[in-house]
Design a protein that fits this description.
Protein name: ABC transporter ATP-binding protein
CATH class of the largest domain: Alpha Beta
Number of helices: 15
Family: Belongs to the ABC transporter superfamily.
Structural class: alpha/beta
CATH superfamily of the largest domain: P-loop containing nucleotide triphosphate hydrolases
InterPro entries: AAA+_ATPase, ABC_transp_ATP-bind, ABC_transporter-like_ATP-bd, ABC_transporter-like_CS, Oligopep_ABC_C, P-loop_NTPase
Organism: Planomonospora alba
Distance between the termini: 27 Å
Mean pLDDT: 93
Order of helices and strands: EEEHEEHEHHHHHEHEHEEHHHHHEH
Largest sheet: 7 strands, mixed
CATH topology of the largest domain: Rossmann fold
Shape: globular
Strand content: 15-25%
Pfam families: ABC_tran, oligo_HPY
Length: about 325
């Protein structure tokens, strides 16, 4: 049964000025995060993942489209955003950079409750530290960031979010800066928080292996748009889009890595047709021509994917294969 949407991006577009042109960082995205659901947003650096996450947090305003929370459009007044950000909390990529080296762990975790004027500060901080796996909390409360390991610092950042009793965590590459031995512990913590507190999460990552281990659904992003999405087992065990296939092929147990040529195109100059076609192995290798869709690949943009629990891909070649079956 599909969980009710808690956060939704509806036909979202975000643009920035760049060298006299407009960079379409997010270019027509539909995405939902349901109650108690973990969604992984994956793709290469520069594909728009972080901009989309910041827009869902209310840190960027869309050029068009809507962010909805609990079915209501997000309002951009100071009061409305303050209330919203108590419910939807960011877990940043770099815990060292996000923690003030002059503040103790207690002060770092207490900052949010103080901003929001919440009562019972000491109890909130202790409970948040314990939930984040820093037990006993009094052992860590007086420590400074430089006295902690990388994994402990990430737990402090998570505790700072938990101190506000949020409903959603937006985690931007939450384990990218950690040692491999610690990554599993942080991922297990996020899963436990979902199970114990009913938290939802959007996890932004370039690592499909991480998505496989933690997510219920996955959305693959390329050059500002979702190109494949669906239940994580379906998408990652049988990917339809050549871009998803290429990302999966670099995992350690993949039999034949796919090397994509070049870098993602400039978002100020999005190619005609399918935006992936200049790097597409199916087009370059003749498979798209064999399916009779090579002309469409270079001239027609695939339809924007809807926010759906079903597995979908924005790809002419994948659509031709499905139709053939």
């Amino acid at each position: 049964m599909t969980p009710a949407p808690l956060i939704e991006a509806r036909d979202l577009h975000v643009e920035f000025a760049a060298r006299g042109r407009r960079a379409r960082a997010v270019d027509g995205v539909n995405l939902t995060v349901g109650e108690g659901e973990i969604v992984a947003l994956v793709g290469e650096s520069g594909c728009g993942k972080t901009t989309l996450a910041r827009t869902l947090l209310g840190l960027e305003r869309p050029a068009s489209g809507t962010v909805l929370y609990g079915g209501a459009p997000l309002a951009y007044t100071t009061r409305a955003l303050k209330a919203y950000r108590r419910e939807v909390q960011l877990v940043p990529q770099d815990p060292t950079g996000s923690l003030n080296p002059r503040h103790t762990v207690y002060e770092a975790v207490a900052e949010g409750p103080r901003i929001h004027g919440l009562l019972g500060e000491a109890e909130r901080v202790a409970a948040a530290l314990a939930r984040a796996g820093l037990r006993p909390p009094e052992r860590f409360a007086g420590a400074y960031p430089h006295e902690l390991s990388g994994g402990q610092r990430q737990r402090v950042v998570i505790a700072g979010a938990l101190a506000l009793d949020p409903r959603v965590l937006v985690a931007d590459e939450p384990v990218a800066s950690l040692d491999a031995s610690v990554r599993g512990e942080i991922l297990a913590l996020l899963l436990r928080l979902r199970d114990e507190l009913g938290l939802s999460a959007l996890v932004v990552t370039h690592d499909l292996g991480l998505a496989w281990n933690i997510a219920d659904r996955v959305a693959v992003m390329y050059l500002g748009r979702i190109v494949e999405s669906g239940p994580v087992e379906q998408v990652l065990s049988a990917p339809s889009h050549p871009y998803t296939q290429a990302l999966l092929s670099v995992l350690p147990d993949s039999p034949s890595p796919v090397v994509l040529g070049g870098e993602p195109p400039d978002p100020t100059r999005i190619p005609d047709g399918c935006r992936f076609h200049p790097r597409c192995p199916a087009l370059a290798g003749g498979k798209a021509a064999g399916a009779g869709v090579d002309g469409a690949c270079v001239s027609q943009s695939p339809p924007v994917l809807p926010a759906s629990a079903e597995s979908r891909a924005a790809c002419h070649y994948a659509a031709a294969l499905r139709a053939g079956n």
